[in-house]
Amino acid sequence: MLKEQILNAIPSLSAVEDAHVSAFAVAREDLVPAIMELANKCRYDALLDLSVVEYPEDMVGVYNLMNLEDMDMIRVEVHFPKEDLWLPSLNDVFKASYILEREMYDLFGVNYKGHPDLRRIFLPDDFVGHPLRKDYENHIRH
User: Are 111 and 135 in contact (CB under 8 A)?
Assistant: First the structure.
């Protein structure tokens, strides 16, 4: 599906420049409705990956979706402040997000509102901090 067609179908999305993949940005409060529309209207019905990127000024949730019929991939980005680390859960839209959101919670400290069981997945429950954050301090002596 062409980028312009997606933008016309889902007005809450805005285009993001990327030479390799059709990329879009959406406001945090519009994420779930936009992802549902991408799945239902545009047939981007597979969540391939979900990750978080930390920049000096903010954090970005990154969602890679695929239309399995056309074998077309897109990326959706959500910027959010470091002082307010939450994103809405996509668990009701894509069951694959269940584990991926737990991973981002564990490693970056992002809370996914509406997640049915948000807890650490790799690190022990008593682990202090989130090791992929830029402000994480390794407490092990070298």
Answer: no
Q: Look at residue 8 and give its three-state secondary structure.
A: helix
In angstroms, how far is CA 54 from the centroid of its own chain? 12
- pTM, whole model, 2 decimals? 0.93
Q: Pick from 139, 129, 137, 99: which is nearest to 115 by CA?
A: 99
Tens-place pLDDT, residues 11-29: 999 999 998 999 999 999 9
Average pLDDT (94-104) is 98
User: What helix, strand, coil percent values describe the chain, rounded to 5?
Assistant: 25, 30, 50
Length, in residues, of the chain: 142
User: Cβ distance 88 to 113 under 8 Å?
Assistant: yes
DSSP 70: T
Cα angle 21, 5, 40 (rounded to 5 degrees) comes to 90
Residue 4: Cβ-neighbour burial (10 angstroms; 0-12, 13-18, 19+):
exposed
Phi-psi map region of 74: left, alpha, beta (phi>0 left; psi -120 to 50 alpha): beta
How many alpha carbons lie under 13 Å from residue 55 in its C-beta half-sphere? 10
